[in-house]
Design brief:
Strand content: 5-15%
CATH topology of the largest domain: hpI Integrase, Chain A
Helix content: 40-55%
Number of domains: 3
Oligomer: single chain
Structural class: mainly alpha
Distance between the termini: 88 Å
Strand order of the largest sheet: 3-4-5
Largest sheet: 3 strands, antiparallel
CATH class of the largest domain: Mainly Alpha
Shape: globular
CATH superfamily of the largest domain: Intergrase catalytic core
Radius of gyration: 29 Å
Amino acid sequence: MAKVTLKDGSGRLTLKHLVEDVDRHGNVRLYVRRAGKPKIRLRQTPGTREFMEEYWVATSDNPNLPQSTAKKIHPIKNGSFRWLCTQYFGSAQFKALAKRTQYVRRRVLERICAADGDNPYAKLEARHIRKRRDDRADTPEAANAIVKALRQVFSFAVEYELAERNPASDVPYIKSGSQGHHSWTIDEVRQFEGRHPIGTKARLAQSILLYTGQRRSDIVRLGPQHTKNGWLTFTQAKNRERKPITLSIPILPELQSVMDATAVGNLAFLTTQFGKPFTSNGFGNWFRKRCDEAGLPHCSAHGLRKAGASIAAENGATERQLMAVFGWTTMKEAARYTRAARQKVLAASGIKLLSLEQNESKSVPLFPDKDSGGTKTAAKSLKNNSTD
C-alpha cells in the first residue's frame, strides 16, 4: 500500500493508507485508501491538527473515534511559524489563489516549516530570510519562490494584525539573468512540422500553441464549445479565480486547415490516448516527447507562445494588439517584444550606414581643414601637440 510522508517540526511522519491523486485539472488531492473500503478524501490542510483528526477518523473502523487521540499527534504552538502558516492557509487571500498556485506555495512553506516551523514567527528577521534565499542561490527561481511565499504570509499577518511588519519585504529577489524558455525560430517550427505532418495530434498541438499564442494551461481546455463563427472565446486559466481575463480571438486559416484535417475531442481539441482531456502538466510532458522526436530537445510548449509574440511584433503588431491576443494586462511584457522588433528594423536600416561603399563617392576627411579659430589645421595641431 502506498504511503505519503508528511514533514513537521519534529521530523518526518509517514501515514499509512494515505495516498496522493491528481485530478484532471492537475490538482493534487489526498485520500485514505484501504483495501475493501471506499476511498475517502481528506479536505483539511496537511500538517494541521484538523487534518490529523480527519485522518484518524477516516482510518478508524469506528466513526465515533475520540478526536482527542489525534490532538496528541501533532501539536501546533501558538505563535510559531507553523501556526501562522495554518492561519494563512485558511485565509481568504490564500483561497483566492489558483489551485496550482496554492499547491506550489504550500509546498514552499511546508519545507520551511519542516526546519523552522516551531520557531516564533515574530522573531523572523530579514537576515534569516536572506540566508535561506542565498542557500538556494544556485537555483534562483526556487530561491525567489521562498522570498515570495514569505512576503505573502507576512502581508497576510500584517493585514490581520498578527504582525507589525513584513521582514520579507526588505529582501530582494535574486536576478538570475535567465531569458526563460527558449523561443522557437522559424527553422525549428519547420523542423517540427517536418517530423509531425498535418493530421497528427502533435501537429495540431503545435498549431494551436503557435497560432493562438496561449499557454498550455489554456490550450488543454480549448474545445469545439469555445468556437463560434470562426472565433475562439475563452477565459484564461491563469488568475481566473481572482482576475479572470476573457479573450476572443479569430481562428487563423493556418490553424483552421490543421483542425479540419485532424481528429479532435468533443470537449477538448487535444485528448490523451484514453480520450480524456490533458492536464496542463500531462500535456507538457507529452509535448516534450514530441519535441524530442523532432530533434528539438531545447524547445518547449511555452517557447511557442514566445515565438508567436516575436513573430507578431516583427510583423508590426503594436503593444495594445499583443495585449489583446496574449492576454497581458500591462504593457510591460508586450513592450519586450515590440522593443526587440523595433531594434531589428532599425538595425536593418542602420547597418547599411557602416558600409564603406556608401562613403566612396562622398568621402569626407576625418578632420576639417581648419579649427574653429581658423589659424591652424587640425592635423598640424595634433602634430604639434604630440609627445611621441
